[in-house]
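Bug report

Summary: structure tokens for Methyl-accepting chemotaxis protein differ between web form and batch submission.
Environment: batch mode, default settings.
Steps: 1) Submit the sequence below via batch. 2) Compare with the web form result.

Sequence submitted:
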Amino acid sequence: MRSVVREKHAERQPVWRRIFQSIGFKIGLIMVASIVAFVAASGMISYGIAKRALEKKVVAAYGQTAQQTSQKLDFLYKTYDGLLLKMMVDEKLADSVTALADHASDSPAYASLADDIDLLLQDYMYSDQSITSIELLLMDGTLFPTKSGLLKNRSYGEDAWFQSIVKADGQSVWLGSNLPDNRNTNPTFSVGRVIRGAGQTGGYCVMLIDVDLSAMGEQISGVEMGEGTVQVISPGGSIVYDKKVGGNGGPSQLAMPAELMEKTEGSYADPAGKQQIVFAQSVINGWKIVGYIPFSDLYKETEDMFGAIAVVLVSACAASIIIATFTARFIGRPLVRMRDLMRQGAEGDLSVRTHAKAADEIGQLGASFDRMMGNIGALVEQTRMSAQEVLTTAHSLASASASTELAAKDVAAATADIAKGGEELALGAERGKDLTDEAMRQTDDMMAASGQMSAAASDVIEASERGTASMRKLREKTAHSEEVIQAVTEKAESLNAAAASIGKVLALLNDIMKQTNILSLNAAIEASRAGSAGKGFMVVADEVRQLADRSRLSIEEIRGLTGTIERGVGETAAMLSAAQPVFREQLAAVQEADELFRQTGGSMEAFRRQLHRVSTSAEVLEQIQHSLVEAMMGVSAISEQSLASSEEVASQSAEQLGISADLVALSERLQKLSNELKDSLNRFA
């Protein structure tokens, strides 16, 4: 049905749209695109190959031009280098310059030698029109003023260019720009050298030749690098000559790759991608001749080739369109006729035939179409007969399915009742199992508490035994302390009596000291009466009196110490007497605590025996509960098994009921399809 709608919609579309959707147009478009793509790819590949080959040839040609230009400049450089060598072997010049040191600057001989030197230098300068000046400097940098020189009259010993010439030690040094104090207004380049005589190790002067830059320009003027320019660049990176500027160009912007720095010739593409650069290095002074060639000059010859490729591409496109048009018509017309015949067959006319006679693929397709239409006609007739039989069978199947559906409903209802009873039994078993588990948990808690109480009772008994032993030791130590205090008290009383005896001895000594003092006084009196005869006795009497005084002081000190000892001993005895009743009370308290520890130990032993009996009863109860749990689990398992069986039966019954319903629906669908098939086949009658 949908295909018919699509065909009617396609017939209502514009002609141009149907052309675009036709197979002939698509084949022609593929052919055109393929031919154009092939020609374009071939042309672009050829263009790329030719472009690269032409680029190599042009770069090689420009590189050869740069090398030839460098060789021409080397010939120019050799001219001035040879002129310096000629000055070096000029004996007259050497003699004149060396003789100057032997004469004063204001002497006639000095003036004569200066004129000779000036004439010689002018001869050298006039030998080449490109030489603008020749400078003569002494080895300390002092300028020798000559008519051929243009430098200012000063010392150049500290200038970098002069020091570089001196360090070269007889080798030529090339300077690429005008010296700062050179009065020459034209751009120049210079070459300098230390001049020394034959067989001498040191030089006697420095000779500097300034050459007009136009001499280099004449050698480069005929060199062409397309639309690009040509430069001469010194090893220091400064531009000696620029063809576009016509003179010195300042610092060079040349960025040469590192791998080409040591090479004397080569080429590379500018990093900016706008030009190709070729260079060649002089073997005389190391200056590079550099050519800048824009890429547009390299590829100028390829523009004609690109135009030819474009013409070929347009011609190939036109030819492919013509070929595609004939191909589309050759293939499209038979296919259109085949489409119309197939449309008639789809509308019910099975007698249509193509009667194709061509031997190509389209003719074979027509013959296959004829055979297909014949087979479809036979198949339609056979299907019509089968559809009638299917319709009869569908009626019988619908009746049987209706009966099966009623039986399945009854089985499902009975199974649902069985499943409900099994579910209630399982729920009861689950509740009994939960109650038993709770009782087991309570019993386990009670056993755990009993065990903890038993352990605590054991700890208490053990602590009571340790306390009893400690109290026994404390009682013994307290009794021993009482005995020690008693002994110390007795010793203190003895010490107090000894201190009293010391006091009596001190009193006796004090009396002796007093009598000695009186005797010494009397002896002194008698000695004074005796006059000079009693002087010795007088000395003895003084010594005895001093001894008596010292004895008195010692006795007083001993009396003070003894008093202190008596007071300390008395206080100690008093404190020990006061502590003795306290120790007696402590001993009584220790004995009482010992008795309490013994009673506590006996009570805890009895409590532990009671806990042991409770634990034994709890273990028996736990075994009974385990048996009850196993029984409840058995009942629960049986209930669950019964419930699972009931649910399985119910599920199967429901499934059977569903199958029965599906079977009825399929029977009705089969009956409907049979009617539809019968109606469809009637179209091809």
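Above is the batch result. After comparison, the two runs are identical; trailing whitespace caused the diff. The radius of gyration is 71 Å. Residues 65 and 223 are 7 Å apart (CA to CA).
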